[in-house]
Amino acid sequence: MASAAAQNAVAQAQLAGDYSVKPAPSSSTPKLDTSEWPLLLKNYDKLLVRTAHFTPIPHGCSPLKRDIKSYIKSGVINLDKPSNPSSHEVVAWLRRILRVDKTGHSGTLDPKVTGCLIVCIDRATRLVKSQQGAGKEYVCVLRLHSALPDPLSLPRALETLTGALFQRPPLISAVKRQLRVRTIYQSTLLEFDNDRNLAVFHVKCEAGTYIRTLCVHLGLLLGVGGHMQELRRVRSGAMSENDEMVTMHDVLDAQWTYDNTRDETYLRRVIKPLESLLVGYKRIVVKDSAVNAVCYGAKLMIPGLLRYEADIELHEEIVLMTTKGEAIALAIAQMTTVELATCSHGVVARVKRCIMERDTYPRRWGLGPKALEKKKMIKDGKLGKHGEKIVGVTPADWSKDYVDYERDEVTTATTTTTTVADGGATIEEVTTVVEEKERKRKRKSEGGEAADTEEDKAERKRRKKEAKAAAAAATETSMAVDTEAAEAEDDEEERKRRKKEKKERKEREKAEKGS
Q1: pLDDT tens across 370-422, in order?
Q2: CA dihedral 388, 391, 397, 403 (to 10 degrees)
Q3: Closest by alpha carbon to 226, among 190, 188, 199?
Q4: Could you tell me how many helices (H) and strands (E) the chain has, helices first?
Q5: What is the pLDDT of residues 249-302, one digit of tens each?
Q6: Residue 114: which of 70, 65, 81, 157 has the closest Cα?
Q7: What is the residue extent of each domain of the chain?
Q8: Nearest partner of 318 among 328, 329, 336, 331, judged by Cα
């Protein structure tokens, strides 16, 4: 009985126990979530990795962590432009309120037009051109001159006036009134009151489109006439009226608060970093050691590449950024994503517009073994002041191993080194391409003359004789001019001598009378 009870207890324990094999706890760290990272660092983990080998340099700063002075000087304001003042006046007022040197805007709005006006401050003015050419969106109030027989004809007319259109600037425009082509991407009718002859529509269009002209064309197409009653810009480039738009009073109050309480919070809320304009561009992350070279105008090469975006196309406009999220420059891609993943050398991108100030990061070029050896040879006098080779002084192995791509020596001259086995002496024969071309030209002319006719020879002789006579005449003329100049100079000296003698004679006579 006891053994049966023991067996039952063991069976119950086996049934109740959990003997499943559980996976071991993962030792790897959880995946990094970068979807909430700010500005250019958003979704940083989704960028393709070229290499993770680089040395961080403790220079630069995250755009949102800059000190207030640098923050303002590299900031942009998404301003709600008021009605009546011109865009130029508004920008000038902001420059005076913030006490900065430069301000610029993303595209002129007429005085009566309200809405989104991107104002760039100091360093951010380098992005003004890119924003001026970006697409725009407007909400317009159209007034028709009489009621429409068919209210459905208005949306049809809006659809008709979509795509590439001919436009001539209005009479009140300040630009030259010449015909131009502008593209309307989309037009949407929001509201229409046929009794009051008023319509409200939303339009997405190319930069430089005249909505006033579009309203006149709509009236002509509908057969009743029309004009623009009111206009508001709801998006300009990268910013819309939903992206923390501020008014002139907000800017004024934020600056007053900072001046009187030293509270930066409101200024940082009103002004946004310039990187906020570049979030729509594809990104390439650059090593810290290559940043300053790019700021000085160097092309970005493969060794300076850290990460890059997918689907980069050749000659596409991209943004170069640091690992801290700072914008370095706008650039033109010289490789596609596939080439960036496979190439071991070459040019990644060339700079179109540099944004970062020079020497924000330290200079790190010219520190390689070849560069250091070159500096030492210049110091020892084995190379010229600018690194050029000196015949008979520069070692022959340097000529063979080192190629200076900054100089045109490869194209202008070829240096051939021949070693004589008998005496062991080295003979350096320097043959310039210019001399070689001269010889070829002479050989060609000699070969060509044999095939010439007698008439060609006579014509050539006649031209040569005329040229010789003209040169002789020019020489005689110059000699005559020189002779006249010499004679004039002699006459001048003679006059001076006579004048001096006359003066001395008068002084002597005066002295004799006095005595």
Answers
A1: 888 888 888 888 888 888 888 888 887 776 655 555 554 444 444 443 333 33
A2: 30
A3: 199
A4: 15, 19
A5: 999 999 999 999 999 999 999 999 999 999 989 999 999 999 999 999 899 999
A6: 81
A7: 71-251, 281-354, 378-434
A8: 331
281-354 CATH, one of 2.30.130.10, 2.40.400.10, 3.40.50.1240, 2.102.10.10: 2.30.130.10
Q: Shortest CA distance to 94 belongs to which of 110, 106, 105, 83?
A: 105
What are the residues facing 138 on neighbouring strands?
A: 203, 233
Whether 456 is a known active-site residue: answer: no
pLDDT digits (tens, 9 = 90+) for 24-42: 555 555 667 777 888 899 8
Question: Cβ–Cβ contacts within 10 Å for residue 451, how many?
Answer: 7
- From the list 33, 45, 67, 110, the catalytic residue is 110
Strand partners, 78: 118
| Residue that has been written with the tokens 């207030």 in this structure | 68
Cβ atoms of 110 and 210 within 8 Å: the answer is no
CA 485 to chain centre: 57
Tokens of 143: 């007034």
Distance between CA 411 and CA 440 in Å, rounded? 17
Is the separation of the CB atoms in 201 and 142 below 8 Å? yes
CATH code for the part of the protein at 71-251: 3.30.2350.10
Is 62:326 a contact under the CB 8 Å cutoff?
yes
